[in-house]
Amino acid sequence: MSVLRVVNLKYKYPDSHRFALNDISFTVEKGEFLGIVGMNTSGKTTLCYALSGLVPHFFKGAYGGDVYIGDMDVLSHEISEITAKVGLVFENPFLQMTGAKFTVYDEIAFGLENQGVPRDVMHERIRESMKLLDIEGLQGKNPFSLSGGQMQRVAIASVIAMQPDVLILDEPTSQLDPEGAEEVFRVVEKLADEGMTIIMAEQKMEKLAAYADRILLLYDGKLIEDGKPEEVFSREDLNEFGVEPPVYVKISRALGLRNEMSGLYPISLEQMPTERDIQFHPVTKTNNGNTTSELIVRDLHFGYEKGQDVIRGLNVTLSGEPIAIIGQNGAGKTTFVKLLKALLKPDTGEILLNGAPLSETTAAKLASRIGLIFQNPNDQIFKHKVIDEVMFGPLNIGQTGEEALANAKEMLALVGLADKADENPYDLSLAERKMVAVASILAMDTDVVIFDEPTMGQDVRGKSKVQEIIHSLHEKGKLVICILHDMDFVADTFGRTIIFSNGGMLFDGPTREAFAQEEALRLARVEQPNITKLVQRLGYDRIILRATELI
Amino acid sequence: MNNMTLYVSRDSPVHRVDPMTKLLFVFISITSTYILSDHLAVLGILLFTFFILLIGKVFKSILPVIGVSFLLIASIIIVQGFFHPDRATVLFEIGPIAIYKEGFLIAFLITLRVVNMVAAFGVLILTTKPDDLVEALLQKGLSPKFGYVLLSVLQIIPQMVALTGKITDAQRARGMETEGGIWMRFKSFLPLLGPVVLNSLTETRERSIALEIRGFNAKGNRTFLYERKNYRYSVPFRIALIAFFLAVIAWRVIS
What we know:
The complex is a heterodimer. The mean pLDDT of chain A is 90. Chain A contains 20 helices and 20 strands. Chain A has helices at 44-51, 54-57, 79-83, 104-115, 119-132, 148-160, 178-193, 205-211, 229-233, 247-255, 333-340, 363-366, 386-396, 401-414, 430-442, 460-475, 487-493, 511-514, 518-523, 530-537, and strands at 4-12, 21-28, 33-37, 62-69, 72-73, 86-89, 166-170, 197-201, 214-219, 222-227, 295-302, 311-318, 323-326, 348-353, 356-357, 370-373, 448-452, 479-483, 496-501, 504-510. By secondary structure, chain A is of the alpha/beta class. In chain A, helix 6 (148-160) packs parallel to helix 7 (178-193), helix 13 (386-396) packs parallel to helix 15 and helix 14 crosses helix 15 (430-442). In chain B, strands 1-2 form a two-stranded antiparallel ribbon. The radius of gyration of chain B is 22 Å and the shape is flat. Chain B is mainly alpha-helical. Chains A and B meet through helix 3, helix 4, helix 5, helix 12 and helix 13 of A and helix 6, helix 7 and helix 8 of B.
């Protein structure tokens, strides 16, 4: 008997005219690993909610069709009964901590206490799930003091301890740095090996291709295809659905490598044929020669607490072509850009903008010259209407109402949210909110634009939009600085890369050289781009940054 | 790291007292100051509460809270001292304004009561882990939903402080001046309130999803991870507190 059965499921959120899920049917067998792919707004998250009973019980709205978990139908049972069988882990690690408990151990116990599990069984299950997720060392810590990757593993442990039949993961790594994401994928792989039934929505296709038995491709609330990973990822029209295939498929397509029997492309490194010779023609991005503003950093030191320096003696000149900053969480990247924006004041050392020290001005006065897009849009957005949010900055720096409105509209169109101007930012998805945050800074037309992880939570289309924006800012002679965790994006977009580790720079130079610095990359705990790794593993001693560099 | 609670982790005899006894202490300490109207007696109770805070090694942590309530206290002194209906004796004069003795004494009494109330709650909140407190109440039959609300209230101040910091940064980053004199700070504080509350509400919605997933609304019996250790001296302490309370009532009736 199937663990999960979905029959003609249709669903509309309250106050919405569009079907978030439109006539979806599929079944999941015990022990299967099912991947869900699709662009943002395709209905991935809603489907995850529907499988765990939050749709319709928590969100209400119009509901048709059936979802069965084992022989229990979701519609006539309460969420607490459903969540005993289906565990859900979602994107934001921070918001999954209940806030009712003050140690990791107690946090995991929360669900068990609610279920009325006897005390000795509870202790046993907590220990088991901590072991499974490799978080035994964290048991006495406060959940809110953990890193994102650790928190996400605590969230999974809390759900696993309730012993569900199915584990659903909704983009569990989209808000994590590469190492945090790797921690989570490692435990997901372990759970899958142990025979747990897993359903995972994810944007990192290489990972899904490696783990999943089957892939559901969603678009606009409809199920487009339910098939083997090779079949789904070999679809020629995949990009039309806002989904990018794994890098192996991209390369194979560029090289015309198809499995002659099945006509499908290889989706993993193991499946790549090795006998084919590859030719390269590396393309070096040339600086367009535009002069930009110049930020000079001299012997910069900063610490949040005395004696604990987060930034340790930085010296760097930032100007010219777009610059990527990469490195592990906690390396001091965000602190560094906050110093550049004068939101923080250096302990010692100085920062000069076009020769003038920042110490003589305030963050607010700098607003018209340096724009900073925060990592978490929720920390940046504070108005009730998208258009007001985008106009807030321009009005503050002295644009007239008309100018500000025109600028705001132009920028919303640029990020693809022109039709959402009158909506409440909090009704938008995280990826859209991030774009609102981008528009609200671009509307101020600053000379320097700093992005803190602009690709976070974005699908392929979102990413290519961010890329276009970065290119066009550079064309207009702006200085662009960008903190990133997505190495494929760095390789494809930036000419200059800075590797950050432990409050200092390990490398500063051309991106192609940066990704050749194996020691520095290892210290900064970042990986090479997928395509670079692939070409090296195929035995070529070249640093390749883009699929277009292969012949 | 910000633990999002007001609890101060120390090793002290006060920390070891069980939450229910501390709760009883808060109740009796506060009501006693209202039953009694003798300045010296109320002062005595206040000093005793301070003494408990000192033993609990958290006296310093209560000072900022008393500082915040000073605005309220100052207004009480001015209003009572200036306008009290029985005013007759001028105590002192500030320029043209005369402060009267009768009003001032009442204001002084109210001040003592307010400070005692803050300090008594301080004893409970600063020396008790919020989850211990709520769990003790749950085991006494409090509904889990109410318990969670109580827990959120206990965390709301540190959370608001953290959130305010983030939003101030966001506003400064886009050209709103928040640095500078006190007037500038005050002006920039008001527009903050909306976003802070709105942001908290959004987070609440997502967090309630997290609670649902973990079976928070499950019917049926709950279990507790930890067995409550009975605090050895809770019975004598409670008897002493109740005896004191009865004495206060008796004194009030007689005098």
